[in-house]
Design a protein that fits this description.
By secondary structure, this protein is mostly beta strands. Helix content is about 0%, strand content about 60%. It has a single domain, classed as YVTN repeat-like/Quinoprotein amine dehydrogenase (Methylamine Dehydrogenase, Chain H), CATH 2.130.10.10. It has strands at about 1-5, 10-15, 20-25, 30-35, 45-50, 50-55, 60-70, 75-80, 85-90, 95-100, 105-110, 115-120, 125-130, 135-140, 145. Strand 13 and strand 14 (about 135-140) form a beta hairpin. It starts with a strand and ends with a strand. One of its GO terms (cellular component) is axonemal central apparatus. Keywords: Repeat, WD repeat. It comes from Phainopepla nitens.
């Protein structure tokens, strides 16, 4: 199964080798910039130009949570390997760590001077890697909200 998101505001899962569409999700009001499966495979996260991050339940075939807090388009998203946290990177110059269970922002990472364009958790750690339009990469310890 492959997951894609696009300018048409939709995410799709595709079966291979046939390439047929298995599921389609709609709900964002602007382009999708990122999408990622939860490590368990039961849910996915999407990020969008509409400034939101959404959690989707594949068995329910719909959005179960919309995370709001960025003031500009969200450029990327990723799941932590434990499946309880989602990270987002935004054109507002911040990144956020979201607690999916409590449905709130746990931390806001500030320090880049321009848009944060991507974010990834390092596997099985509390470290996040961000990249920015300010031509820098940063490693963050999300427990202390500090750069390493």
């Amino acid at each position: 199964i492959v997951l894609t998101g696009s300018d048409d505001r939709l995410w799709k899962t595709w079966g291979f080798p046939d390439g047929n569409i298995l599921l389609t999700g709609e709900g964002h009001t602007d382009w999708l910039s990122g999408c990622c499966f939860r490590p368990s495979g039961t849910q996915l996260v999407t990020s969008s130009g509409d400034t939101t991050v959404r959690i989707w339940d594949l068995s329910r075939r719909g959005c179960i949570l919309t995370l709001r807090g960025h003031s500009r388009a969200v450029r990327g998203c990723s799941w932590h390997s434990c499946g309880d946290f989602v990270a987002s990177a935004s054109m507002d110059g911040t990144s956020k760590i979201w607690d999916v269970n409590s449905e709130r922002c746990r931390y806001t990472l500030r320090g880049h001077e321009e848009s944060v364009n991507s974010i990834e958790f390092l596997p099985f750690s509390s470290t996040v890697l961000t990249s920015s339009a300010d031509k820098t990469l940063s490693l963050w310890d999300v427990r202390t909200v500090s750069r390493l």
